[in-house]
What we know:
The chain is an alpha+beta fold. It has 2 helices and 6 strands; from the N terminus they run E-H-E-H-E-E-E-E.
Amino acid sequence: MNDLRDIVIQPLITEKSMKIMEENNAYTFEVAPQANKVQIKEAVEKIFNVKVVKVNTMNMKGKKRRLGFSEGKRKDWKKAIVKLKDDDSIEIFEGI
C-alpha cells in the first residue's frame, strides 16, 4: 500500500455510526483488509489533519446473496472506528 488513500477506502455513514460520532467523537471507515491499526491511525491523521486517540478494527463477513438457483457472496471487508481528540473533527461528516 503505497498511498494513504489505499488504506482508508471510504467513510461509513449509518445511523449507528452517526450516534457514535455524536457521543464519542469517533468516526467509522471502511479500510483495506490487510491494514493494521498503526497504518490506519497514520493515514487518518495525515489525510484529515487530526489527532487520533484510539483505533478499533473489526473484520466483517460478506453476506450470502441468492438470485434464483445461483448463490453468491459479497466480499469480506474491514471496518475501523477511529476515536479523535476531543477538540478535533472531520469536516466531511459535518452537516449530515
